[in-house]
Amino acid sequence: MDIKKVCEGLRAASQKLALQNACQKNAALEAVAAALDKNRASIIAANRADIDEARAAGMSESIIDRLLLDDKRIDGIVDSLRLVIAQTDPVGEEVAGWKTPNGLNIRQVRVPLGVVAIIYENRPNVTVDAFSLAYKSGNAILLRGSSSSYKSNVEIVRVIREALEGVAGGVPESIELVEVREHDHSDVDQILNAVGLIDVCLPRGGKKLIQNVVQNARVPVIETGSGVCHLYVDEFADLDMACTVAENAKIQRPSVCNAIECIVVHKAVAGDFLPKLEAKFAGRVKLHADQRAIKYLKDAIPATDADFGNEYLDYECCVKVVDSIEEAISYINSHNTKHSESIISESRVNTRLFQAMIDASCVYVNASTRFTDGGEFGFGAELGISTQKLHARGPMGIKALTTTKYLIDGEGQIR
Prior knowledge:
Layout: H1 3-18, H2 22-38, H3 40-56, H4 61-67, H5 71-86, E1 94-99, E2 105-112, E3 115-120, H6 125-136, E4 140-144, H7 150-165, E5 175-177, H8 186-192, E6 200-204, H9 207-216, E7 229-233, H10 239-251, E8 260-266, H11 267-281, E9 286-289, H12 291-294, E10 301-302, E11 316-322, H13 325-335, E12 340-344, H14 348-357, E13 362-365, E14 385-386, E15 394-395, E16 402-409
Helix pairs in contact: 2-5, 2-7, 3-7, 5-6, 10-11
């Protein structure tokens, strides 16, 4: 890949987009939504080829689930795209404004970042999500998906570009897909070292990918974290609610980053709750239990140190019993990835303590962590879940791809 040539083309495209108004961008995105809907058969066929290769390579079914595109998921992609269209265009938004004593008018306004790169694994829906958020916020985007979803991504990008070419004012050159060669990651190194060519890079995938980007990038990075998420069942919990939330948070889609990987239980309710939990899971989840939890469970296996803080991304979960909410908070903060945590409790004091002291981008009370998602937060799509504290945190929607600049109007003032 000639990274300089690719990024120069994207830079020119971003400058075109920066001059477009919301109506122009929305018209282009609506054409893309219609094209994705119309071309779903070719997209699903390409995806089926990716899945066949993944299964032949022995990939787990949890990864296959991440790869899969069917009619229902394409419906979801199109719906998410239309939610992005309905979002207010952030470009040009006045964040603050004031007049100085010497008469200068100062305005802080939102502007696009410019050229954005995203390096992601498996999920081809990210191709559309990342493109739509970038386009709406006036940014050009460089996509580097994984080899496992390459055929799907190629077809999706083809459909997007053709749709943009058919719209007056469309900017098809604002999206580029890196040609992926299996076992060759030299293109990733080029992206991470494209200082002055790429304004920000986002990793979205497993722990290994994210660490590689964060540790080796010379361009700015917005870190999206792996999801070691916890559910804490407090001594004042409604145990039936706790079982229902645990089932949803672990089983509904275990391969995603907002699924729980550990259930922490207060000792006062462990004897009642854990048998209920095991019955609720009905053999669908392999439980790795610590010494205090295992005596209440029939089919659990002893947990090792490696289980605590592990992201299973599968039908597995670890269980830990604690003496107090303070111990639960300390344990979670030392083993989580700052993603999403939840407490089940009827105690307002305990729930507020949990929300105040847990270090994570999203902290829930009496609800499943599965809601940490751009669509569920009303953003339409998302670029990922930022687990860092600078620039963006939590689900990243349109505004996460903007920065601000100051516009100063004067009448000849000098200092």
